[in-house]
Every structure is written in structure tokens, then in C-alpha cells.
Predict the structure.
Amino acid sequence: MIFGGLQRFSLIDYPGELAAIVFTIGCNFRCPYCHNPELVNGTVERIVESDVLDFLNRRKGKLTAVSITGGEPTIHGKELLSFIKAVKDLGYKVKIDTNGTNPELLETLIKEKLIDYVAMDVKAPLNRYGEVVKANVDTSLIEKSIDLILDDKVPYEFRTTVLKGMLDENDIEKILKTIKGARLYCIQNFTPTKTLDPSFLHKRGLSKRELEKLKILSEKYVKTCEIR
């Protein structure tokens, strides 16, 4: 498997763990606000799997976990499965970030105990998915992934990126109804650094007051809500 990046150390990406982050290349969504456009477009420098595994082997005992993000990791199917097995063989915990479009692979990862934490981005209410992510979406796959995660067989979080003009309070409430009962929902405020659509560099995140209002709303539906 070929990767688009390796961050050698993070204290914040995997809750409670000292983690390395690996970035997969490619995505089946085209979210205009995406902050990793080089991974989506495939214009990033490549790192081969053997180099990543060599690094992880050298860091055993110092790092405790590996976070796999992207792009969208699950589009790599069997290659991803093989890589995760190799990482687990080295003794690491594994967290995966996903957009939820491959519930079949997600189910395999959970059943075979190959992941220890999953973070799923819920991009929009189901009726607006394609509009927000700028791609054709089978929302039944999104629903299946949500149901799998809510089954609570592995620690998890759901998260949504918010920015002015993208999702309103009504949209967030629809998302919350879809993930009702979730242990953790994270509202990620948009910061214009890099974006897939350059015009989104002129967009802005929500105010503190607007974020707190969404947090109060969220706590009617989920056990914990965090603002990030």
C-alpha cells in the first residue's frame, strides 16, 4: 500500500494514546472545505508501506497507537486490511477515520478486532449528503455504518464540520436524530487554511455563541458533545 504522509507523533489524534498518523491517498467525496486537498487529488509525495512499518517497528514501546486517516482509508479495501493486520502484529492500537461509505469493510475490521477506535464523519443530514460532499452518495451505506458504530463494539466518535452557509441548526438536528444515543459527537469548527475548493478559503467558521448553541442542542440527543 502507498501512503500520502506520515506524522510521527501526535498527542491529540487518538484519545489517550501516543500515536503516529498515516495518511491514505484518494477519496470518494469532494467536500469543498476539505483541508487535505493534496490527498484527495493525489498530488502528495508517496511513502511506501514497508517504510511506514519499519518506522513503527523502531518506535515500539514509545508509541502506543496508529491513527489511519486520509483521504478516505476504506477505499483501499484489502490493501488497508492487510496493512492494519501488520500494524496490529506490531502491538499497536489502531484508530481509523472514515466517511462511512464502506460498512462492509468497517464490519470486518470490528468483527476481527482490527480497530480499537473509529471516528466517522457525518457530513450532512441524509437528504443533503450529495449536495454537501459534491459526489453521488448511497446514503443507505452511511446509515449502515452509523448503525454498526452505534452497536458499541468499539470506542467511537461521530463528528461534523461546520461553517457559515453550509449547515444550519435544522441540519445539525437531523444529523443528531440519525445518531441519537451516540456516546460522543464532535462539532468541528471550520478553519480556512487549505481547501479543496479555493473559494472556500474565504468562508468562515461559526462564532463561539453559535457553537455553544449547537452544543446545547446536541446534548438533547447524544451523551457527550465536544466543540473542536
